[in-house]
Amino acid sequence: MSHTGTHGMYMAEGGGSTGMSMAGPPPLGHMTAPPPNKYPHSGPTGLTGSTLQPQPEPQPPPPQQVLPNIQPVNVQEVRNILPATPITVSTPLLPQHLRDLNPDPSVFCSTMSTVPATSGLLNKMKLPFAIHIHPFKDSKARECPVINPSTIVRCRVCRAYINPFVSFVDQKHWRCNFCFRNNIVPDNYDYNPQSGKSGDHSFHQELRHSSVEYIAPSEYMVRPPQPSVYFFVIDVTYPTIQSGLLDVFCATLLDCINKLPGDSRTMVGFLSFDHTLHFYNLKPSQAQPQMLVVSDLEDPFIPSPTSLLVNLRESKELVKSFLQDFPRMFVDQRNLQSALGPALAITEKLLHQIGGRITVLMSSLPNVGPGALKVKEATGATKMDQLNMSASTDFYKKLALDCSAQQIAVDLFVFSSKSQSIDLMTVSTVAKFSSGQALVNTVIDATKAYRSNVASTMQGAGAKLTLPVSLRLLPLFILSLLKNIAFTLSNRQNTDCRSATISTILTLPLDWLISFFYPKLYALHTLSDKDTVDSDGEELLAPPILQLSAEKLTRYGVFLMDYGTGIYIWVSKEAPADVINNIFGVPHFGAIPESMTSLPLLENNLNRLTNSLICQLRLSRQHFMPLLVIREDGPHRLLFINYLIDDKTEDGTSYYEFLSHISRQLTK
Ligand SMILES: [Zn+2]
């Protein structure tokens, strides 16, 4: 699997255009902006590579450069719609010198590889035309220049930063490649202090690289750089204590207290809460931590303004002894009342001068003081209300806006039991999601638009459910969205899990998100050295990706599933003893331990390849991917089975039933 292959596994194959879709600079003096909502550079089929800059004379690309992406595919007839080999992200149709300047597609890529030539067709398709940006995604592979210019040059109209794709109209003017307006070149911009020469601005890093990092001058700052501030807000109600969460939190923080990012100015503070607020004086002059309790939740005050947020280096021993003793302070806790709202509000007051990061650990529904919530299931809310996932108070949203304005970030670590809702949707104030029907309509609309505008002229395109090659995976992915906990109408799902999933979806990088919705399934028992591809001189494993269907799970197989945030290994009951021995280092199926979470390193090829694949997947993600080995007869089997999206499940139809459904909608 190549780097770009991982990223664009299911994106359209070459021929279209992704990345920063800007054509080369037009000739000097050409200053006409394009008419609004028109996409120039129209090809004979009405679909072209994306080219947004005005062209003096539109030149349709040769048909063979465009057509592969829009060739018809009757998706109902294809048994294995997933591509056999990884698909690399297509590269924009640019002259070579601009191609080199273009950012890596993993940093900057268009949602469409083939862009409709008119805004009317784009509207009919109902597919979002957007740019996906992942800053620094390529920082390992490419060096990002850090620059500290005296003036940061930006477009006066749209505020775009000057970049390699702007054009210089004359010595005094440059034209923005986003809004096509002319801007004045700053005085002395062509003076190179290193060579002492004038007349050529091409030495500027921002004109040579599409990704640069600016050292922000003071006018870009709300205030001078502040120390790193970590403030921990901890729910100490009964569930937190009883579950052992508080012990785990303290042990973990003790473990990494020396690794908190920051310099010698780094500051820390702690606040715990049940029905009251507990502050901790950790000044280095203290012999031991001092607890200060505030019980006024309506208008809480800060009991000791200068001693609650302390310099970590100066107070480290006190902080360590606090973390060692903290869990024991609440061993007899039976309180179920949680004043999360007041705890967060007072923390915001404490940090508002300096900013920082608030880390919240919680297990209970906030139920006292401002921001108190009621258990949704108990308030008579209908199932539909619960599915709509609306926040029941704007307390947390207002607080979030206040925090944001003060440069305060809040991380929630939420641990709720299945039986106890904590109304995460309100606490996390995530906007409500629309229902799944909109997703189904998107397939239908895309198919109709394709049929009426493009396919009518092509042989074989008249079949009922025909999509262009580039969209052939759309129905499969829509189905995977519909079956995901974020969108499913099934009421088996806990609303807190749903909210957590929605929050996850809104923040995951694209490559990760694709696996999150439609996991990648690989057979391990057939893994061999032949399953490698060369990616920029590096050998990577790229075994065939299997459809997520029980029919792919042979009775004697061992399979690896990458579900975005983690990895499952599925072991079938009849997997041969030598395969099991090679991978897991145990003699037979029955000897594989329950809840095995790592593989041994053994002296055989299958074990080496399996560990390499796991390592490769983990390196491709920003967060650690946990591993779980699942035996076919084990208690965790449903975790794996529920991901067999192609099959009929409790949460929805099979893939082929879904295609029939779309097909029927088309004839209505
Ligand atoms: Zn502009």
Automatic annotation (TrEMBL):
<dbReference type="GO" id="GO:0000149">
    <property type="term" value="F:SNARE binding"/>
</dbReference>
<protein>
    <submittedName>
        <fullName>Uncharacterized protein</fullName>
    </submittedName>
</protein>
<keyword id="KW-0963">Cytoplasm</keyword>
<dbReference type="GO" id="GO:0070971">
    <property type="term" value="C:endoplasmic reticulum exit site"/>
</dbReference>
<dbReference type="Pfam" id="PF04811">
    <property type="entry name" value="Sec23_trunk"/>
</dbReference>
<dbReference type="InterPro" id="IPR036180">
    <property type="entry name" value="Gelsolin-like_dom_sf"/>
</dbReference>
<dbReference type="InterPro" id="IPR006896">
    <property type="entry name" value="Sec23/24_trunk_dom"/>
</dbReference>
<feature type="compositionally biased region" description="Pro residues">
    <location>
        <begin position="24"/>
        <end position="38"/>
    </location>
</feature>
<keyword id="KW-0333">Golgi apparatus</keyword>
<feature type="domain" description="Zinc finger Sec23/Sec24-type">
    <location>
        <begin position="152"/>
        <end position="189"/>
    </location>
</feature>
<feature type="domain" description="Sec23/Sec24 trunk">
    <location>
        <begin position="225"/>
        <end position="439"/>
    </location>
</feature>
<keyword id="KW-0968">Cytoplasmic vesicle</keyword>
<dbReference type="Pfam" id="PF00626">
    <property type="entry name" value="Gelsolin"/>
</dbReference>
<feature type="domain" description="Gelsolin-like">
    <location>
        <begin position="543"/>
        <end position="604"/>
    </location>
</feature>
<dbReference type="GO" id="GO:0030127">
    <property type="term" value="C:COPII vesicle coat"/>
</dbReference>
<comment type="similarity">
    <text>Belongs to the SEC23/SEC24 family. SEC24 subfamily.</text>
</comment>
<dbReference type="InterPro" id="IPR036465">
    <property type="entry name" value="vWFA_dom_sf"/>
</dbReference>
<dbReference type="Pfam" id="PF04810">
    <property type="entry name" value="zf-Sec23_Sec24"/>
</dbReference>
<dbReference type="GO" id="GO:0006886">
    <property type="term" value="P:intracellular protein transport"/>
</dbReference>
<dbReference type="GO" id="GO:0090110">
    <property type="term" value="P:COPII-coated vesicle cargo loading"/>
</dbReference>
<feature type="region of interest" description="Disordered">
    <location>
        <begin position="1"/>
        <end position="68"/>
    </location>
</feature>
<dbReference type="InterPro" id="IPR050550">
    <property type="entry name" value="SEC23_SEC24_subfamily"/>
</dbReference>
<dbReference type="InterPro" id="IPR006895">
    <property type="entry name" value="Znf_Sec23_Sec24"/>
</dbReference>
<feature type="compositionally biased region" description="Pro residues">
    <location>
        <begin position="55"/>
        <end position="65"/>
    </location>
</feature>
<dbReference type="InterPro" id="IPR007123">
    <property type="entry name" value="Gelsolin-like_dom"/>
</dbReference>
<dbReference type="GO" id="GO:0005789">
    <property type="term" value="C:endoplasmic reticulum membrane"/>
</dbReference>
<dbReference type="InterPro" id="IPR036175">
    <property type="entry name" value="Sec23/24_helical_dom_sf"/>
</dbReference>
<dbReference type="InterPro" id="IPR029006">
    <property type="entry name" value="ADF-H/Gelsolin-like_dom_sf"/>
</dbReference>
<dbReference type="GO" id="GO:0008270">
    <property type="term" value="F:zinc ion binding"/>
</dbReference>
<dbReference type="InterPro" id="IPR036174">
    <property type="entry name" value="Znf_Sec23_Sec24_sf"/>
</dbReference>
<dbReference type="GO" id="GO:0000139">
    <property type="term" value="C:Golgi membrane"/>
</dbReference>
